[in-house]
Each structure stands twice: as C-alpha cells, then as structure tokens.
C-alpha cells in the first residue's frame, strides 16, 4: 500500500519534470530565445557595464540635484506608506473576523484589499496616468493604492491570528468595542503592524523609482532622462545613490524591528 | 433565593444539530457548581449562554432577578460586568503587563473614553494590587504576561475576573492546560473565592475526581442534556457511566 503510493509519487515527479522541460523548450523555441547565445553575451555585458557605468569626476557635479530628487522620492514613498497605513488600520480592523463591526464592512474591506493588491503598482501607475496625467500625484496615488491593499491584508491576518482570545475575554467583561480594539487588539498587534509598514516603506522606495520613470517625477525621472541622453556615468551615480538609500533604510528598519519585537 | 435560574434552555448553531436540549437548573449565591461531561457535550456553550457570549434560542435565564435574554445593549454590558469569566487558555493580552491585564476587568464599568485613556481610580489600582498580592503574584505585576507560567497566567485571569467585583464567575475548563500542582492551586483558589468571598462559581471540568473534591453540586451533561444533578456523594459509578457513556452501551451500539 505504502510502497505503491511512493512509486506513484515518484512517477508524478518524473512526469512533472518532463512537462517543465518540454514547456521550457517550447517557450524558448516560440520566442526564438537561444539559451547558449544568451549565456555568451553575459561577459560582454559585464565588460560594457565596467567601461560605461563608471562614476566620473564631472558627474559628481550632478550629485546635489540627484540627492534632492532622491530625497523627494524617499519622502513621497514614506508619506504614501504612512497614509496608506492609517487607512489600512481601519480597513484591517473592520475586515478581521475577530473585530468586524458587520459583515458588509468586512467583505468590503477584504474586497478593497484583494483588488488593490492583486494589481501591480506599475499597472496602477499606468491606469492612474490616464486620469491624473504625468505628475507626482499619480505616483503618490499608485503607491498609496498598492500599499493599502497589501497592508490591509497583512493587518487582517495579524489581527485574526493574535487577538481572538483576548477579544473574547474583554467582551465577557462588558468592554465596549473601542475599548477592546484600543486596549487589547492594537497593543497586541502593533509591533507586527509596524514591521509590515517598514517593509512597505522599503518596497515603496524601490517601487517609486520605477513609478517615477512612468510618471516623470522624482529620481525615476532623473534616471530616465540621463538614460535617454546616453549619459551612462550619471545613470551609474543615480543607481548607486538609490542602492545606498535602500540599504540605509533597510538597516534602519531592521534596527527598529529588533527594538520593538 | 437563587442567583441563577435556567429554564428550558435550548441552543443550536445549525438547523440540523441541537447542542443544548431543555436545560433546567438553579444555583444559589456562594455555591461552587461543576459541569462535567465528555468533550462536545455542550459545556462551553452552556456557560456562554449565561453571559450571552452565545445567543440561545429557547428558554429563560434569570440572573440576579434580571431576564438575561431580554436586555438592551447597556443592560447587557452591565450583566457582563457582573459576571467574571475565566478561560482554559487564560485569554490575556500577552504583550501587556500583568497589572494592565488585571485592570481590563474594570472596562465594563467605564465609558469608552475612560477605558481608552486608561483612567483608573486610586481605589481600583489599590484593589488590583491587593488581589495580585492575595493570589501571590504581586512581584510579577510589571512583567509581561507572556513571561509567566501557565498557572501564574491563570491567576492573572482570575484577578481580572475578581476586580469586576462579580456575583458569579464562569470558568471554562480553568485547569485543562495546567499541570497537577498548578491545577490544585487554581481549584483551591476558586473554592476559597466561593466560600470566603461568597462569589458563586460555575466551573466546567472534565476531571470527575476534581469536580467531586471541590464542588458543592455537580451537573452532568451528555449530548446537550442534563443527565445528573446532585452532590459529590450522590455521584456513583452508574451516574458517571451515564454522563460519559458507559462501556456496555458502547459495546451494544458498536
Ligand atoms: N460557534 C460554533 N458554531 C457551530 N458549532 C459549534 C460552535 N461552538 C461549538 N459548536 C458545536 O457545539 C458542540 C458543543 O460544543 P462545546 O459547547 O464546545 O462542548 P464542550 O465544551 O462540552 O466540549 C460541538 O459539537 C461543537 O462542534
Ligand atoms: Mg469546551
């Protein structure tokens, strides 16, 4: 009985692998992507990067403008994330099974979460571009919408997981809804929620660059501009600055996480 | 005069299965009454009907001369403030300190804003420390609850119930997650709460010997029906088999 099952499992694995190999081969053939050729270009690409993406002395003149744009983008991401976090806090509380006010609001919150989360931020930016045009509001909204979706979902899960039992206990003492949410649910879930918000700040600083290319604002615009001017030295500097910012934010949020958890 | 009177109580969560059937019993002030029965018998449901954590379908519950089934929102809050509850898994807020968890027991008497701002009177704080001391956990007052052992956490849970100054405490399997030593401490505490403080206790248990040792009266529940009520001395092998489903019966149905 058991051996039969194991043999069946092994066959399933083999068939599964075969299907993947066939699919890979087919898709390579259809798109006429040659794996070997692809590999062969890698050394050349690296060589090109080294010769062109060098930060030179004269590009450093551009540093103040780059930093200014970078700061603008960073603060925009932080603003979009924190405002989204406040909205998500309410949606999370209303959406959770444990703290829902009524079924309608709960379904509504979950619906908002899944719609905004399952559409990538870049897609949101493209959609919002149509109605808001190329300006920083569009970028802000794109990040905001995506973040609300993600955080609402994360908050709902945190609340569901962490507070069922204490909500029951406080209800049984005759506490009011807001006493329960404010004094049991939020204190219990706050560290985890902050952790999620920090994660979204990091993600959004990265996303903001991409969104900025589309909406023509912030550091993304700077990147795009020099890229199109074929000024690869400045492009390299911009990239370096973005990488450093992301790493710094990452280190800071890891530190905050360690303190609060 | 009885503090709690249950008449013809019926409860079903779904149309196809009735959980509680025609439950009748009375409890006098200061009594410690145990409800025993196999798991799934409906013990937890019965307890939760009394403070309306679960809405019952039929019957009448009178608590302290109030009709439990017929209360508006404010009266229901007041009812719950007058009934403490102790849980198998303690149901504390793990990240908060012991003293904060104890003071949660006062929310039932406060406005939403007072509760949110944590406005407690001096008397309330003194009472909280007095209770912690009485239960022997005052040295942990400022520790987070998740740093305490199970037995200590359950004592915090009991403090939270006691600070409500309740007339009745409902305990849902208070010792089911504890080791024998802690179990004894908790049961001794509940006993002294009923005898010394005069607070009525209704305790769900699944250990028959514990129920026999501590209760003034025992209610035996099987498949949602009361199949026994009486004192510990009246609970014989035959009744225990009836409550838990006897071996011979199992053989016949199997
Ligand atoms: N919220 C609920 N929804 C549906 N069925 C429930 C719910 N709570 C309990 N039940 C069912 O009611 C029966 C009695 O449960 P419970 O009162 O917890 O029994 P006990 O505490 O004696 O183990 C069980 O069959 C259980 O599945
Ligand atoms: Mg139970």
Automatic annotation (TrEMBL), chain A:
InterPro entries: MetI-like, MetI-like_sf, PhnE/PtxC. It is a multi-pass membrane protein. Keywords: Cell membrane, Membrane, Transmembrane, Transmembrane helix, Transport. PROSITE patterns: ABC_TM1. The chain crosses the membrane at residues 75-95, 107-131, 137-156, 229-252. One of its GO terms (molecular function) is ABC-type phosphonate transporter activity. One of its GO terms (cellular component) is plasma membrane. It is found in: Cell membrane. CDD domains: TM_PBP2. It comes from the Bacteria. Residues 70-253 form the ABC transmembrane type-1 domain. It holds the Pfam family BPD_transp_1. Belongs to the binding-protein-dependent transport system permease family. This is Phosphonate ABC transporter, permease protein PhnE. It comes from Oceanobacillus profundus. The gene is phnE.
TrEMBL record, chain B:
GO terms for molecular function: ABC-type phosphonate transporter activity; ATP binding; ATP hydrolysis activity. Its EC number is 3.6.3.28. Gene3D superfamilies: P-loop containing nucleotide triphosphate hydrolases. Keywords: ATP-binding, Cell membrane, Hydrolase, Membrane, Nucleotide-binding, Phosphonate transport, Translocase, Transport. One of its GO terms (cellular component) is membrane. The keyword Repeat does not apply. It holds the Pfam family ABC_tran. Residues 4-248 form the ABC transporter domain. InterPro entries: AAA+_ATPase, ABC_transporter-like_ATP-bd, ABC_transporter-like_CS, ABC_transpr_PhnC, MetN_ABC_transporter-like, P-loop_NTPase. Coiled coil: none annotated. This is Phosphonate ABC transporter ATP-binding protein.
């Amino acid at each position: 009985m058991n051996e039969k099952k194991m043999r069946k499992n092994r066959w399933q694995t083999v068939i599964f692998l075969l299907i993947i190999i066939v699919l890979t081969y087919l898709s390579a053939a259809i798109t006429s992507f040659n794996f070997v050729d692809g590999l062969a270009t890698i050394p050349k690409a690296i060589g090109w990067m080294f010769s062109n993406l060098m930060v030179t002395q004269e590009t450093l003149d551009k540093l103040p403008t780059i930093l200014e744009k970078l700061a603008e983008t960073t603060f925009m991401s932080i603003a979009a994330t924190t405002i989204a976090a406040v909205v998500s806090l309410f949606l999370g509380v209303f959406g959770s099974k444990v703290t829902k006010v009524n079924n309608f609001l709960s379904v509504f919150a979950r619906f908002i979460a899944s719609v905004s989360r399952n559409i990538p931020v870049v897609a949101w930016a493209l959609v919002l571009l149509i109605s808001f045009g190329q300006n920083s509001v569009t970028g802000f909204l794109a990040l905001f919408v995506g973040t609300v979706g993600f955080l609402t979902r994360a908050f709902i899960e945190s609340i569901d997981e962490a507070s069922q039992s204490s909500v029951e206990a406080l209800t049984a003492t005759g506490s009011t809804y807001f006493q329960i949410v404010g004094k049991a649910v939020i204190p219990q879930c706050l560290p985890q929620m902050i952790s999620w918000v920090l994660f979204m700040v990091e993600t959004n600083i990265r996303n903001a660059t991409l969104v900025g290319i589309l909406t023509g604002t912030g550091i993304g615009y700077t990147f795009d501009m020099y890229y199109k001017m074929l000024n690869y030295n400045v492009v390299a500097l911009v990239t370096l600055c973005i990488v450093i910012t992301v790493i710094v934010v990452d280190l800071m949020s890891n530190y905050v996480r360690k303190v609060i958890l | 005069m009885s503090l709690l009177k249950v008449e013809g109580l019926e409860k079903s969560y779904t149309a196809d299965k009735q959980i509680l059937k025609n439950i009748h019993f009375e409890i006098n002030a200061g009594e410690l009454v145990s409800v025993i029965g196999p798991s799934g018998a409906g013990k937890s449901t019965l307890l939760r009907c009394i403070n309306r954590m679960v809405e019952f379908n039929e019957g009448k519950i009178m608590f302290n001369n109030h009709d439990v089934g017929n209360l508006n929102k404010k009266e229901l809050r007041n009812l719950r403030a007058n009934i403490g509850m102790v849980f198998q898994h303690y149901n504390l807020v793990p990240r908060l300190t012991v003293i904060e968890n104890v003071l949660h027991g006062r929310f039932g008497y406060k406005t939403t804003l007072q509760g949110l701002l944590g406005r407690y009177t001096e008397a309330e704080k003194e009472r909280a420390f007095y209770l912690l001391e009485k239960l022997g956990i005052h040295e942990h007052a400022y520790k987070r609850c998740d740093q305490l052992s199970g037995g200590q956490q359950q004592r915090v849970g009991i403090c939270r119930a006691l600070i409500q100054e309740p007339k009745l405490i409902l305990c849902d399997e208070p010792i089911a997650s504890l080791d024998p030593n802690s179990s004894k401490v908790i049961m001794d505490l509940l006993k002294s709460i009923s005898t010394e403080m005069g607070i009525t206790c209704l305790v769900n248990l699944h250990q028959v010997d514990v129920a026999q040792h501590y209760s003034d009266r025992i209610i035996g529940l099987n498949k949602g029906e009361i199949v026994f009520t009486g004192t510990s001395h009246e609970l014989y092998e035959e009744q225990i088999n009836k409550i838990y489903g006897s071996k011979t019966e199992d053989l016949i149905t199997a």
